[in-house]
Design brief:
transmembrane helix, mainly alpha
Length: 60
């Protein structure tokens, strides 16, 4: 997920550099949305680990 955030951020910077402001804004919004989802899932996993004492890794 962090890779996607960095990718969209770089795409937003490149698009802004070339003058595609609408596209740059879209890429920035996508990166912010994915970052929020990442933070929420990270906090949820921390709370789960604190409550149960074990990680939330599903079996493969």
């Amino acid at each position: 997920m962090l890779n996607w955030i960095v990718t969209f951020f770089i795409l937003a910077v490149v698009a802004a550099f070339f003058g595609f402001t609408g596209l740059a804004g879209t890429f920035a919004e996508i990166a912010k949305f994915i970052a929020v989802i990442f933070v929420v899932l990270f906090i949820a996993s921390l709370v789960y680990r604190m409550i149960t004492g074990r990680s939330a890794n599903p079996p493969l």
